[in-house]
Amino acid sequence: MWHLGHLVGWTLGCVLAPLLLGSMFGPRWIAVGVVCALVATLWLLLLLPRSAHRAFEAARYVPATRRYRVIESLAFTRRRARAARLSRAACQLARGNRAGADELLAAIDPGELDTSERVVWLNNRSCAALDAGRDVHEALALVDEATVLRPDVPAVQHTRARALLAVGRIDDAIAVLDSMRSGGELPLRLEADRCRELAAAWERKGQRDYADDYRDRARLHAI
Question: What is the pTM of this model?
Answer without folding.
Answer: 0.85
